[in-house]
Design a protein that fits this description.
- It contains five helices and seven strands.
- The strands form two sheets. A five-stranded antiparallel beta sheet has the order 1-2-3-6-7.
- It starts with 9 loop residues before the first helix and ends with a helix.
- Helix content is about 25%, strand content about 25%.
- It is an alpha+beta fold and about 170 residues long.
- It has helices spanning about 10-15, 20-25, 105-110, 125-130, 145-165, and strands spanning about 45, 55-60, 65-70, 85, 90, 95-105, 115-120.
């Protein structure tokens, strides 16, 4: 059986962020949490519609949800070759994958230390892992893992990234 993310409230999402100040967290533009199909989410990710270079990721951990504020590489910058998402391993052409950088939590982040990862620009990794979105047309590799195995891989990769931010 697939493990899904539990529905979160506005307060739970805001309280989850480990690499942002209280002021930054209060200014976040959250998605409509009531409109989300939580049964199909393994992580919560969104791009701020008012600030397209700002993205956010919330991952369920054993300690509760952990949120990470990300900064997207500007869309016109970087290579236009095919790249693979480090979370869901979906390969996209052009700008379908973006380098996203997160300040580390605590003093390390205040000192300017960051970690980065190539992630689906849309942050729709759960939909790709579950087969709810078709893989991009240019993808030639056929995924042989089951949906459950792809979701487990997505969760492992997301948890590893969150731990890099927290450590």
């Amino acid at each position: 059986m697939l493990c899904v993310m539990e529905p979160l409230t506005d307060k739970q999402v805001r309280d989850s962020f480990v690499n942002a100040s209280k002021g930054e967290v209060q200014r976040l533009n959250l998605p409509d949490l009531d409109a989300l199909d939580w049964d199909r989410l393994d992580l919560l990710g969104w791009v701020d519609p008012k600030a397209p270079l700002a993205a956010h990721l919330v991952v369920a951990t054993d300690d509760g949800p952990v949120g990470v504020v990300l900064r997207r590489n500007p869309s016109g910058a970087g290579p236009r070759r095919a790249r693979m998402c480090s979370l869901c391993t979906t390969t996209h052409a052009g700008q379908g994958v973006a380098l996203m950088v997160a300040r580390r939590a605590g003093k390390a982040g205040r000192d300017g230390n960051t970690v980065g990862l190539d992630i689906c620009a849309s942050l729709q990794c759960s939909a790709y892992a579950r087969g709810l979105l078709p893989p991009p047309a240019m993808t030639t590799a056929h995924e042989t893992l089951s949906v459950e195995e792809r979701v487990a891989r997505l969760r492992r990769n997301a948890l590893a990234f969150v731990e890099r931010v927290r450590s």
